Amino acid sequence: MLTKRIIPCLDIKDGRTVKGVNFIGLRDAGDPVELAEIYANEGADELVFLDITATHEKRKTLVDLVKHVGEKVNIPFTVGGGVSSVEDVRAILKAGADKVAINSAAVKRPELINELSLAFGNQCIVVAIDAKEIDDSWKVHLVGGKEPTDIDLFEWAIEAQQRGAGEILFTSMNHDGTKNGFANDTLLQLHKLLNIPVIASGGAGNIKHFADTFNFGKADAALAASIFHFKEISIPDLKLELKQQNIPVRL
Fold first, then answer.
1. What pLDDT digit, counting tens, does each position of 107-145 carry?
2. CA 107 → CA 42, 84, 119, 188, distances in Å?
3. Any catalytic annotation for residue 11?
4. Which of 11, 88, 176, 220 is labelled catalytic?
5. Which of 51, 130, 176, 212 is catalytic?
6. Is 152 an active-site residue?
């Protein structure tokens, strides 16, 4: 059985790690390179870095940051934010990242997924989807959650897979930063619809939430931010508890 992955997420703004609730109210959480090194040493399976204002500010992801992280960590890491072309991805991978996450640019021009998958292989391409449940319907949001669309989460996830996405990173905007647990019913639907891995994001508050998203949401990986950044849960303690619950994790 494939092991379930624990992935700290570092949202980057102005070169610092930040964290908010429901995509707003950001507060400083530390130096991203220092945090990355700590998490790698603690046993994180992967890391995700999202330059959360790159698209909004119409600039490119910080390639220098990628280089610094690559020099310090020996686990796979994904980088996203402002990625919109083959050239962007080539620069990020060349700087040391293992995967690239695309979000708004892929929604606006879906052919980008095909192009990137063809150029680099689908194992490098993560399609991140920020979605919000509105009147019992999950709608995709763009530009760091600032721009709502009428696009259905499930339809877009299926299309992304068909176009060459290697993984889906689904963030529930309703759950983000609330620490009330992941959107497990929605994750289970994605699991049933897709045959590529789904990463759960938004809502982690305690160890039980991770166990629930693996057991009930059938997530392949769980991503969290503030509970790691502010030392509410340690990765070794989390993994040990999951192991004791017979959830396959790498210790």
1. 999 999 999 999 999 999 999 999 999 999 999 999 777
2. 35, 10, 19, 23
3. yes
4. 11
5. 130
6. no
